[in-house]
Amino acid sequence: MPRRVRNWLPGLLLVSPSILAVGLFVYGLIFWNTREAVSGRHDEISPYRFDKGRNFVDLWDQPSWPGAVKHALLFTAVFVAGALLLGAFLAFLMDKGIRGEASFRVVYLFPMAVSFIASGVVWRWLMNPAPPERAVGLNQLFGELHLGALANGWWQDPEWGMAAMALPAIWQMSGYVMALYLAGFRGVPEELREAARVDGASEWKVYRHVVFPQLRPVTLSALIILGHISLKVFDLVMAIAGKQIITYVPAIATYVEVLDRHDPANGATIATYLLLAVALLVIPYLVWSVRAERTR
C-alpha cells in the first residue's frame, strides 16, 4: 500500500461512520424531500409522478399558506429583535462588572437548558387568554396589581398573536445571546479602551466608537442562529396553541399536510421552502466566514 494512502486511510476510516450518517440522514433525506416536492403525489397510495414543480406555485393559492408565512415573518422580527436587544443589554451590564456575576450568568442561561416544549407548557398557562373572572397567569397578575389595562388575549389576538408567541422564545434565547455578546465584550483588548479614555472619550463613547464596532461578527452570528431557529419554529407554537389558524406557521403546516391531510407533495413543498429560507441565511454567512478566514 502506498505511503500516502497509509497516511490518510486511518483518518478516513475514523470519520467514515459520520460521513455515511450525514450523507444518508441529511443529504439523502433532502434529496427524497425535494423529489416528493416536485411530484404530483397528493395522497399516500398514488404512484410517483413528476409534476414539474407546480406545487411551489399552487401552494400560494391555499388560504392558510400566506397567513403561515406572515406569522413566521412576524415571529422572526419580534423574536430576533427582542433576543438581540435583551441579550446585548444583559451582556453590557455584565461587562460593566456587577456583584455575583457568575450567579447572574447561570440564571440568564438556565432557560436555554429547558426545551421549547417544556417552556411552551409553562407559557401557555402564563399567557392564558381567559376572561377577567377566570384569569390566570400574567392577566391575573395584572389584575391584582390594578393594571388590568395590560391584560390581553396574548396568542389569541388575530393580529399580534405571533408577537406574543415570541415572548417565550425571547426569554429562552436571550441568555444565549448574552453569552455571545459577553464573550465579544471581553474579547476587546483593554488597551483599545484605555487609549480611548486617554484621548478624553467618555465611557459611553468608548463603547460606541471602540467596543460596539468590534461586535459586528458577534451580531451577525447571533442573527444567523436566531433567524434559522425562528423560521423553523414548531414545538413552542404547538405546545402553546396547537394547530390553530391564528398561530399557523410553515413548520406546523408541514405537520398538518403530511400527518393530518396525508398529502406528501404539499408537505415536502413547504419543507423545501423552509430549507431554502434557512439556506438564504446560512450560505452567505458561510461564504463570508471563509473569505474572512482567508484574509487573515
Automatic annotation (TrEMBL):
Membrane topology of this protein: Multi-pass membrane protein
One of the GO BP terms on file: transmembrane transport
Record carries keyword Cell membrane: yes
GO cellular component terms, A-Z: plasma membrane
Record-linked SUPFAM superfamilies: MetI-like
Domain ABC transmembrane type-1, chain residue ranges per copy: 69-287
Subcellular compartments: Cell membrane
Transmembrane segments: 12-32, 72-94, 106-126, 160-183, 268-288
Keywords, comma-separated and alphabetical: Cell membrane, Membrane, Transmembrane, Transmembrane helix, Transport
Family of the protein in this entry: Belongs to the binding-protein-dependent transport system permease family.
Protein name per UniProt: ABC transporter permease subunit
Organism: Actinomadura litoris
Organism ancestry: Bacteria, Bacillati, Actinomycetota, Actinomycetes, Streptosporangiales
